[in-house]
UniProtKB/TrEMBL annotation:
Entries under Gene3D superfamilies matching the protein: B-lactam Antibiotic, Isopenicillin N Synthase, Chain
Keyword terms of this UniProt record: Dioxygenase, Iron, Metal-binding, Oxidoreductase
InterPro entries: DIOX_N, IPNS-like_FE2OG_OXY, IPNS-like_sf, Iron_ascorbate_oxido_reductase, Oxoglu/Fe-dep_dioxygenase_dom
Pfam families for the chain: 2OG-FeII_Oxy, DIOX_N
Protein purpose: Probable 2-oxoglutarate-dependent dioxygenase that may be involved in glucosinolates biosynthesis. May play a role in the production of aliphatic glucosinolates.
Transmembrane segments: none
Residues annotated as domain Fe2OG dioxygenase: 160-265
Keyword Metal-binding appears in the UniProt entry: yes
Record-stated family: Belongs to the iron/ascorbate-dependent oxidoreductase family.
Identification of the protein by name: Fe2OG dioxygenase domain-containing protein
Highest taxon above the source species: Eukaryota
Length: 316
C-alpha cells in the first residue's frame, strides 16, 4: 500500500509566479492549469512561498494557545451568522473545535477578536493575522482573476473585488485515540465563493472526485495550500466549475490544526450568472441569490436534508 499509488490532487506552483504578472507566459500557463484542475477536481494543491515559515509557525503557535484558553473565553467568539463563531462540544463531532474571525481583512475586527481572547489584546497575534490574510487574500484574488479571464469574464473582476468579504476560521481536530478512523468534519461543500485551506503536519482532509472516490490530501510541501471552489462561485459560473465534497477523517492521537480563509460575496451583492455563460449548450442553472440567504437556508432542516443545498435553494 505505498503512497505512490494513492491518487493525488493536482499540484500547481504559485511560488515562481509574480502575482502582478498578468499576461506573462507563466501567468498564461498557470491559468490553464488552474482551469484544468478545477474542471476535474474543483480544487488543487498550490505551493505558495509568500508566507514565511516563521510566520506560519508563529500563527500555528497562536492557534494552539487559543484552543487552550478556558471554554468561557472561547465562547465569547460569537457571530450573528451561523457557523461563524465558536463551535465545540458538538454532539456529532466530538473531535472538532473552531473559532472564526469575520471581516478579517479589517484590522479592527482582528483586534476585537484578540481583545476577547486575551485581557490585554495581543499585538503579535494581530500582526501575524494581518500578514497571513494579506498574502492569502492576494492568492484568492489571483486565482479568481485567472478563473474570470479563462471564462472571458474579466469585466466583472472589479465588482468582485469590491464586494468580497473574508472569514478566517481556525480549526482543531483532536486525535480519536483509538485504532479506528473517526469523522472530524462531515462531507460537505462550502457555501462561500473560494476557500483556501492550510494545515499542520497531521493529515485528515479528503476530497471527493467526480466518480465518488475519496482522495486523501497529503501536502507535498510545508507551504502547500488547498484552493477550492465553493458553492457561490460555482453558481456564478453557471456550474462550469463545481464545488467538491470534502470531509475530515481523523486517526491516531495527534491533534490536527487547520485554517481556512473563506472569501464570500458581501451581503448586498446579488450573485447572478453572467450572460456570457448562458447559451443553448449551457442553459441557465441558477436563479440570482444572495450568499447570506444561501447560508441561512443551508442551516434550516430542509437545507440540511437536501442532497445539494445550492440546487435546492436556487436551482432553476
Ligand atoms: O480542516 C480542514 O482542512 C477542512 C475544513 C473545512 O472543510 C471547512 O471548514 O469548511
Ligand atoms: Fe469545507
Amino acid at each position: 500500500m505505498g503512497s505512490e499509488s494513492s491518487p493525488k490532487l493536482p499540484f500547481l506552483d504559485f511560488s515562481k509566479l509574480e502575482l502582478s504578472s498578468v499576461g506573462s507566459s507563466e501567468w498564461e500557463s498557470l491559468k490553464s492549469q488552474v482551469r484544468e484542475a478545477l474542471e476535474e477536481y474543483g480544487c488543487f494543491e498550490a505551493s505558495y512561498d509568500k508566507i514565511p515559515s516563521d510566520l506560519r509557525n508563529a500563527f500555528f503557535g497562536s492557534m494552539e494557545e487559543i484552543f487552550e484558553l478556558p471554554l468561557e473565553t472561547k465562547l465569547r467568539n460569537v457571530s450573528d451568522k451561523p457557523y461563524h463563531g465558536y463551535i465545540g462540544n458538538h454532539p456529532s463531532f466530538r473531535l472538532y473545535e473552531s473559532l472564526g474571525i469575520d471581516d478579517v481583512a479589517v484590522t479592527e475586527k482582528v483586534e476585537a477578536f484578540a481583545n476577547l481572547m486575551w485581557p490585554q489584546g495581543n499585538p503579535n497575534f494581530s500582526k501575524q493575522t494581518h500578514s497571513l490574510v494579506e498574502q492569502l487574500s492576494t492568492l484568492d484574488m489571483t486565482v479568481k482573476k485567472m478563473i474570470a479571464e479563462s471564462f472571458g469574464l474579466q469585466k466583472y473582476m472589479d465588482e468582485h473585488i469590491n464586494s468580497t468579504g473574508y472569514l478566517l476560521r481556525i480549526m482543531k481536530y483532536n486525535g480519536p485515540n483509538t485504532t479506528d478512523t473517526e469523522v472530524g468534519a462531515n462531507s460537505h461543500t462550502d457555501k462561500n465563493s473560494l476557500t483556501i485551506l492550510h494545515q499542520n503536519q497531521v493529515e485528515g482532509l479528503e476530497v471527493q472526485t467526480k466518480d465518488g472516490s475519496w482522495i486523501k490530501f497529503q501536502p507535498s510541501t510545508p507551504n502547500s495550500f488547498i484552493i477550492m471552489v465553493a458553492d457561490s462561485l460555482s453558481a456564478w459560473l453557471n456550474g462550469r466549475l463545481h464545488s467538491p465534497y470534502h470531509r475530515v477523517m481523523m486517526s491516531g492521537n495527534e491533534a490536527r490544526y487547520s485554517l481556512g480563509l473563506f472569501s464570500y460575496p458581501k451581503a448586498d451583492y446579488l450573485i447572478k450568472v453572467p450572460e456570457e455563460l448562458v447559451d443553448e449548450q449551457h442553459p441557465l442553472l441558477f436563479k440570482p441569490f444572495y450568499h447570506k440567504e444561501l447560508l441561512s437556508f443551508f442551516y434550516t432542516e430542509v437545507g440540511q436534508a437536501a442532497p445539494s443545498a445550492l440546487h435546492a435553494f436556487c436551482g432553476v
